[in-house]
Design a protein that fits this description.
The chain is of the alpha+beta class and 502 residues long. It is 51% helix and 9% strand. The longest helix is centred in the middle third of the chain and has 32 residues. Bound molecules: protoporphyrin IX containing FE. Protoporphyrin IX containing FE (HEM) binds next to helix 14 and helix 18.
Length: 502
């Protein structure tokens, strides 16, 4: 009888504990996890990502909702897919969600410790952010560097002119890439990093594309950090090589500038570019910016700024060529503005007078956000979000691609209709959460003002100076608009178009 009593006691205690555990995980709002697909043992939901993770996550979120929980190997991942949920993450709880999950490849050369993109929102990050805001991206700085961008766009137009004369098709993304590369390198270092179709431009392109490709490549180590020491796919090793080359190049530029300053017996501002400004700050007493910070900041700005900007120009031209009547409308608007102010060339001050062109750029970013899942965020503590518990160290992906194509947010979401923005105040500056291709909150892209000017000036100039026709007699409606996933979302088949003199 005693044994029977003991067994009954143990059993009822176990049942009690089980019921308490179940009810606390199921019904307590504090412990409720967001819904999501059931994970497989060990690998979790990795296989469901496929080759186009942003698209796979979009269709999963249609079943599981705008705050979705996945297990990617060992990593708890929360996917945000609605403007309301994005506002909760990036505005209301910004302080809790503004850390980063660092892909293993980005640990090469200690980049994750020194890089503004990957470091946590620390005092050091604030210093770098302030330096960027005041020395590179302020309206004052951008006004003073606009002649550089204009010159580089003129060079682009001459390059296009050569193709026009030959009647050959131009790779628009590639030409845009070289233009942005040179315009950023002149703003930073007062030098070109290559000419169209030269080996040097190709070398830089290969380096930056290599970095984008490795950083965007699914890496088993990111799902199972325990494998970090083995680097089984060799991703970090290759990234080490790419970073090493770029850092060596930037380091050489600093040495050269120091020599120049010494030779000219000037302490500062030999060239009056970003390098000069950063070196001044670096050489201040008790400066919080060291030489490695400057090197990794250049790395950040080159990697984050060139491919994103040039691929936006390529997608915009592709959409316009697919929709000839919109192209005509955008071109007429540009020409009328130039005629009114009696200018031959497009200038950045004209952007505010071009509502349709601005709508074209917004519509392009809605359909083709260059960074479709934003840069991964992370929680540093348990956070309550819309009634769910988001655990400490969860990776947060904000699926702006899904939000841009959500039929409950946009009419005819898959069609290119710039006109939808003409009557609307919606902009991509981080206040309207249905359109946040640059992110929002404290981690919003600091390069937004530069990207905004560069994309508009390139697009307006390409439209103003030439007519365009698709290569090999391809019809507009036949154009392949497939995407190639990576850190930047590229057009899978590069846009080739023939410029025609107007
Ligand atoms: C971060 C988009 C151009 C520099 C970001 C983020 C996005 C983004 C989505 C991450 C936001 C987040 O984590 O929530 C874009 C797009 C561009 C563009 C769509 C062009 C069309 C540029 C340019 C530069 C730049 C031209 C500089 C030359 C950066 C940097 C960060 C960043 C440094 C990291 C900010 C941080 O983590 O604190 N960008 N970007 N971007 N971008 Fe851009």
């Amino acid at each position: 009888t005693l044994a029977f009593l003991l067994i009954s006691l143990v059993l009822s205690t176990l049942i009690f504990i089980f019921i308490i555990t179940i009810s606390s995980t199921k019904s307590s709002p504090n412990n409720k996890h967001p819904p999501g697909p059931s994970p497989f043992p060990i690998i979790g939901n990795i296989l469901e990502l496929g080759t186009q993770p942003h698209q796979a996550l979009t269709s999963l979120s249609k079943t599981h909702g705008p705050i979705m929980n996945l297990k990617l190997g060992h990593i708890t991942t929360i996917v945000i897919s609605s403007p309301q949920a994005a506002r909760e993450v990036l505005q209301k709880n910004d302080h809790s969600f503004s850390y980063r999950t660092v892909p293993d490849s980005l640990r090469a050369h200690d980049h994750h410790i020194l890089s503004m993109v990957w470091m946590p929102p620390s005092a050091q990050w604030r210093v770098l952010k302030r330096v960027c805001a005041t020395k590179v991206f302020s309206s004052h700085q951008l006004d003073s560097t606009q002649t550089i961008r204009q010159k580089k766009v003129q060079e682009l137009l001459s390059h296009v002119g050569e193709y026009c004369l030959k009647g050959e098709a131009l790779d628009i993304g590639e030409a845009a890439f070289t233009t942005v590369l040179n315009s950023i390198s002149n703003t930073f270092f007062s030098m070109d990093l290559g000419h169209f179709a030269s080996d040097k431009a190709q070398e830089f392109k290969d380096l930056i594309w290599g970095i984008m490709e490795e950083a965007g490549r699914p890496n088993v180590v990111d799902f199972f950090p325990i494998l970090r020491v083995f680097d089984p796919q060799g991703v970090r090793r290759r990234m080490n090589g790419y970073f090493g080359n770029l850092i060596k190049f930037f380091d050489g530029l600093i040495d050269e500038r120091l020599r120049l300053r010494e030779a000219s017996k000037m302490e500062a501002n030999v060239c009056n570019d970003v390098l000069d400004s950063l070196m001044d700050i670096m050489m201040e007493e008790n400066s919080q910016i060291s030489r490695p910070h400057v090197l990794h900041l250049f790395l950040d700005l080159f990697v984050a700024g060139i491919d994103t900007t040039s691929s936006t120009v390529e997608w915009a031209m592709a959409e316009l060529l697919r929709n000839p009547e919109k192209l005509e409308k955008a071109r007429n608007e540009v020409r009328q503005v130039l005629m009114k102010c009696d200018h031959q060339q497009f200038e950045e001050s004209h952007i505010s007078k071009l509502p349709f062109l601005r709508a074209v750029v917004k519509e392009t970013m809605r359909l083709h956000p260059p960074i479709p899942l934003l840069v991964p965020h992370k929680t540093e503590e348990d956070v309550h979000l819309c009634g769910f518990n988001i655990p400490k160290n969860a990776q947060i992906l904000v699926n702006v691609w899904a939000m841009g194509r959500d039929p409950s947010v946009w009419d005819n979401p898959n069609q290119f209709i710039p006109e939808r923005f003409l009557e609307s105040e919606i902009d991509f500056k981080g206040h309207d959460f249905e359109l946040i291709p640059f992110g929002a909150g404290r981690r919003i892209c600091p390069g937004l003002p530069l990207a905004n000017r560069t994309v508009h000036i390139m697009l307006a100039s390409l439209l103003n100076c030439y007519d365009w026709k698709l290569d090999k007699g391809l019809k507009a409606e036949e154009m392949d608009m497939s995407e190639k996933y990576g850190i930047t979302l590229h057009k899978a088949i590069p846009l080739q178009a023939i410029p025609i003199k107007v």
